[in-house]
Amino acid sequence: MGSNLSLAYLMLSAILFVIGGVGVLIRRNPLVMIMCVELMLNAVNLTFVTFGKMLNDISGQIIVFFVMVVAAAEVVIGLALIVAMARRRPGATADDLRTLRG
Amino acid sequence: MIASLFAQAAVTSATTENGIVHVAGPSIDWLALLPLLILLVGALLTLTFSSFLKGRAPKGLFTWTTVAIAVGAAISAVPMWARVQGWNSLMWWNLDQAQTGPFSTAGGAVGIDGFSLFITVVLCIGVVLAALLADDFLRRESMSGPEFYVLLLLSAVGGVIMAMSNDLIVLFIGLETLSIAVYVLAGMNLRRVQSQESGLKYFILGAFSSAFLLYGIAMLYGATGSTNFVDIREFMASVVPIHNGLLLMGLVLVLVGLAFKISAVPFHAWSPDVYDGAPTPATAWMAAGVKAAAVAGLVRVFMLTFSNYASTWKPIMYVLAILSMVVGASLAIVQSNVKRMLAYSSISHAGFILMAVQANSGNGITAAAFYVAVYTFMVAGSFGVATIVGRKGDGNHELSDYQGLVRSNPWLAGSFILLLLAQAGVPFTAGFFAKFLAITAAADAHAVPLALVAMVSAVISAFLYLRIIVAMFMSGGDDGLEDVPHANRLRVPMAAGLAIGICVLVSVVYGLFPDLLLHNARAATPAAVQFERPVSAGSTTAGG
Fold first, then answer.
1. Which of B194, B200, B214 sits opposite A67 (nearest CB)?
2. Nearest residue to B381 (alpha-carbon basis) of B129, B139, B149
3. Residue B316 sits at the chain A interface (C-beta within 8 Å)
4. Which among B169, B194, B225 has CB closest to A99?
5. Which end of chain A has the least Cβ crowding within 10 Å, N or C?
């Protein structure tokens, strides 16, 4: 892989990470916020693979599996919390979560 | 690193006999991982066997099981402590080799040294205290069942993994194991909408910060070519990194991720809300256990791995420490809810710990270890009192709910006063020595302005603790002195009383005899030890 191509992949993953980060900050639906966090984690996965390729090191690609497992566990917990919330207050957005003043 | 380990194991030991390929795994010192295994297996067995009881569990069964598991895990760390400290006379199980000193195992993924064992024991103590507080609380709130205890143990597993981590990815996995269990703990009280809200808030912000931490790890991997602490340390010693943006960015992002977990100031916004909404025993664990594990992560990454590169991260941590101490102490004063007050005061405590970490010296590590150990008792005891005063529904945490406590429950109020004074750092309490060591470490590292700010903020936060104490002395209700003390007397359950008693006793004893703990805190030094890979002919460099 040429170094220019690697750089392009790193830029792509940085852009994806920023899109995810901005999404968490501006979207108000908890479900979409979780999807944005997942986008951030997957952007990091792409970074790991690219660095692994650049360094000619297999561990960069193996780390991705660890991250995927963690991301999956996170989604399970997040969806459970959202379901518990939605049963009590259907259609709640992040703006409605203001019982505790910040 | 983990990956190269597997790759290497496959290459070096893949011998073919009759067409069957034998692949040897990494050699693992199971005895060294015993605290971790006891907590993990204990949690899973508790969950499994509880399903056979079909809800007919005897009162307090899970509490005492959890306490036994945590105490067992703490005791199992003692033989390793003897090995790390080189107490040869005590090493009856290791007579043949008599290896002493810190070591790393599981392919260099895990480092067993004084610091990791110290934090392991602190985490086990945190589990014991939180389980004792939860005993009566869960019955009161109709949340009985093994779930709370299992999650508590599993999050402790994550904390122990973080404390023992010798690899950035292991650190990340430990942090996530810890956090995911705590997200559920925070949102567990389905009857309180605040609890669910705090769980969801903590989850979204926690996952957000984990993503930053992971991106930082990816950048450090790209900059240094490894995720193993020892390899990174060697790499950093061999090159002179100038204007290395990737490395700098990675360090900053990792610091952001860990600062979020210890709730240092620019990243603290979640903690008052979450501490307020979460079930109070879970809050006690969050304040004690999660913070201890995150401090362990900070020490391992910054003081152990990047200690040669301190000129870059020290100024950032300096600013974080100042902001945490001042903002935490100042905002605590204007609160009217005791749980939120304690949350802000824990932010201020985080600032003191950061001050010790930024010293980047042996004294700094000692101060951080001492502070974390003492803080666990002080904060768990304080939230223990809040658990009892919260009454049924877990909603009575306003300052006015504490009025008249001295007359209705003198022992409870007295314990709370002692714990608050210890948090304020009054001499002859353990909190005094914790603050003293942290300030000394900073002053020794030529950070005198930081030490001065710390002293000022200690004074500011003393006002906060006195405010709670004064509220307890005020008479409850409008009818003044004729108030009947027995009418609103709180019942102090046995287990929670025991936990608070332990906390008070320790806060006082370590205040009078700090050497008892200081001796161990001095021995709690982290060490970077290269994993000794099994030597075999030929391909030792496979996998990179």
1. B214
2. B129
3. no
4. B194
5. C
- pLDDT score, position B194: 83
Mean pLDDT of A13-31: 90
Give the pLDDT confidence score for residue B296 in this predicted structure.
92
User: Is B225 in contact with A57 (Cβ distance < 8 A)?
Assistant: yes
Give φ, ψ of B431 to 5 degrees: -60, -30
Judged by a CB distance cut-off of 8 A, whether residue B473 touches chain A is: no
What CATH class is the domain A1-89? mainly alpha
Domain boundaries, chain A: 1-89
The pTM assigned to this predicted structure is 0.88
Q: With CA atoms as reference, report the closest residue to B170 among B305, B297, B31, B29.
A: B297
Other Cβ atoms closer than 10 A to B512: 10
The amino acid occupying position B259 is A
Higher pLDDT, B371 or B93: B371
DSSP state of B382: H
Instruction: Supply the DSSP symbol for B239.
Output: S
pLDDT at B530: 67
Residues 6+ apart with CB under 8 A from B507: B374, B377, B378, B381, B418, B419, B422, B429, B430, B431
**d(Cα B419, Cα B544) in Å, to the nearest integer?**
52
* Averaged pLDDT, B459-467: 89
